Amino acid sequence: MARKLKVFRTAAGFHDAYVAATSRKAALAAWGAERDLFARGAAEEVTDPALMEEPLARPGEVIKRLRGSAAEQFAALPADRPKAKKRSAKVEAREPAPVRAPKPSREALDAARDAIDTAERAWRKEQREFAERQTALDRERRNATERHEQALAELERAKRRAQEVYDASVARWRETR
């Protein structure tokens, strides 16, 4: 039996990332998390039906929702932010920082996971169809067995009647000899 889906949420920048999964471990895998965000208090299970609707419609897929408007996000920044320092002329003499490689793309991984999910859904559907056909065959077998047993019982009664008639005829025949 398939496990029930739950909806989990974690912060992802200015967004909340939601995912419908069967377990916390599956949610962490969907988010690509390397550490247990639940143990750190950075992720939680969602029980609000309004927030659960879209993730449950697309299980395993990470759904991002913007947390507040841009104005609300700027208003939440601390008022005493450190000010940028002025650069001295000596800074110009520095070598440029090495260019960092871009973060690897998750596209192939997501496509592979989607393919697995699609294959699993197809397999579960096929198993349900097998079960339905098996139930129909079992019902058909029971009905055929009942028909056979009824017909056999009727034939047995007819045989008994024929045996009685035959036995009586043989008895009469012996008396006439």
UniProtKB/TrEMBL annotation:
Span list, region Disordered: 75-111, 127-150
Protein name as it appears in the record: Cell envelope biogenesis protein TolA
Organism of origin: Sphingomonas palmae
Lineage: Bacteria, Pseudomonadati, Pseudomonadota, Alphaproteobacteria, Sphingomonadales
